[in-house]
Input
Amino acid sequence: MAHNGKRLMHIDHWRSIAVSVVTILLVSEALSAEPIAASPAIITVFEQGGNANYHIPNLVVANDGTVLAFCEERWGSASDDVTECHIVLRRSLDEGRTWLPMATLRRKEGGNFHIGSACVDHATGVVLLMCGGGWLKSEDSGATWTDWKPNVVAPPDGMGGSTHGSAPGVTLHHGTAKGRLLWPARAVDRTDGYSDGSIPDRRTKCYSTALYSDDHGTTIQRANLFLQGTGEACLVERLDGAVYFNARAYFNDHRRRTALSGNAGRTFGKEGIDPVIIEVNQGTCAGMVRYPPKLIGGADLVLFSNPSVQDRGRCHGVLRGSRDGGRTWEYAEELNSADDWFDYSSIAVTHRGVILVMAKSTSNGRGLPGFAKACSIVVFRVSLEWLTRGQMDVTATGADKN
Output
């Protein structure tokens, strides 16, 4: 009996430990889980005021999970032809809930420094930023910055590529070009002059392209020119290694143009028109990013955001989700209404799977005051479960959640 008693005490001891471990895991999971909100949380990141007007959001997540929100601070005017423009940054260390004070990366009285786009090199952890006044890089997730001076290879046609206004670049994860850094870009044929205010010039002299680097940003090369009549763009790598490209179009058909690369972004072809996504005449800069497959059991999910409207100003932000690399869009949810301003946008996904949509809007993401009074930058913070109405979550194994 004594022997059996000790045995029972031994079993109870390990049972107690097991219960404690399970309890700790459940509590930890409850604390870290992202609740499904009925509507997006809207967080003001850059608020218009005084001489400061904010435009062209660019959002990335560093390897350590730090969220970096870049944009232009147009000084004294909201217009594209402003005479002074700064590059500014805010960082978040808690998945976009709160933001550290603003840092100014480029500023000079009378200086006109416009933003290009950022890219996180997943192999090295370095954050690269193309911008006016000299490109920049950070080796500590955006805390400090130094000059980045790559060798930019001039293409035979003499037309360079610019990432101004386009979505962030990506690190490729598949195929023989794994590790390549790839940015969506655009180029302009200025052979016989060009006026950005001329719609005919935009339609005939503007092209989409891409910039890429196979040596962690030491050398930058340009892809071919494609999609005539397009502007700011975004791209994602499909799970089969193809690169899907989606661009603003300078036409009045309310549609975006698409292209595909089968060689990791070196050349693009298979040009088309997205039949589902709509937007205003002349288009706008949209956000697009791949939801990290490792968070959803290897499943395929591409996110896209833009002002989904035809006959009004830029308003009605919609977040879409595609389960087939942008071929079709299965999910669509409103970030704000048709009575709310929603301009340029950029998307990122945090390490815990929170979706952040950074957009130019009013200071609270509501209302339609017009362009000059809608120059704040906000972040719409949502969960995957909210977008997919519970069909997918960060614990999925690739199948729908039922």
Remarks:
- The chain has one domain: 41-388.
- The CA atoms of residues 223 and 266 lie 5 Å apart.
- Helices lie at 2-32, 199-205, 384-388.
